[in-house]
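User: I'm writing a tutorial on reading structure tokens. Could you give me a worked example: one chain, its sequence, then its tokens, then a sentence or two explaining what the tokens reveal?
Assistant: Sure. Here is the example chain.
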Amino acid sequence: MKSILCFTLFAASVYAQSIVIRTSTILDGRGGVLKNRQIVIEGSKIRTVAVGTTKATYDLRGLTVMPGWIDTHIHLNWHLDADRKSVSNGGKPEDMALETAGDAYITLNGGFTTVQSVGAAIDANVRDIVARGLIPGPRILTSIRQIQANAGDPEALRALVRRTKEQGADVIKLFATSGLGAGGDQTMSDEQIQAVCQEAKAVRLRSVVHAIGDKGARAAVLAGCTSIEHGTFLKDETLELMAQRGTFFDPNLLVLHNYPDNRAAFTFKEEQLNHD
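And here are its predicted structure tokens:
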């Protein structure tokens, strides 16, 4: 079976010269397959994908080249510590930064060229360093923080959204419900959800909503939030409402089933499921 090579670019601006990649098979990302083409890259842009005879910088014939992948829901700061346990905090700040940068490098090598990390403050530091071309990593979009019910009344939440935007967030993340391990019931009031998502729209940021149970998800859809994350217990009526309102659904199904089906392989404590 032929290997699949994910074509990745990071900090491409450091390359002054054109890069020519010779291929035999390209998955174009639109459902098509291209044969015997050359990819010409200048700076951070793919200029052409066409038949050509220019001397190749890289000859990838015999492999399959495809666009970089996009993961819309990750937590870049979560990593395995020295004891091989999954953690997101507790270490020295400098160690946590290095671990997060290491995760970015591993993610890029896995073929992901854009990720949405939702979210921790350290994500923004790593995002900016990657963007400067100092370390390899994917393009990172981060919410910087996760907005919870205990962050205040609707006015306080609106102010928090504005502050999060000023601090450099690319997206707003809010918890409309508890975690899966806690049952997924609605935790933010309808008014709180409305305040966060409306203010996010006002400052031109998307709002992604952690919603396990149906009630909290439905409230988020009615509030005009951008996407529902997880949605483990969504009812058909809520899914239909999402389709009508144009609300995106990001179910994370691989993560959901990977743990229960392979529990013995995981070293972290089960209650950590609630973090997401």
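What the tokens reveal: The chain has a mean pLDDT of 87. Helices lie at 93-109, 121-131, 154-166, 190-202, 214-222, 236-245, 253-261.
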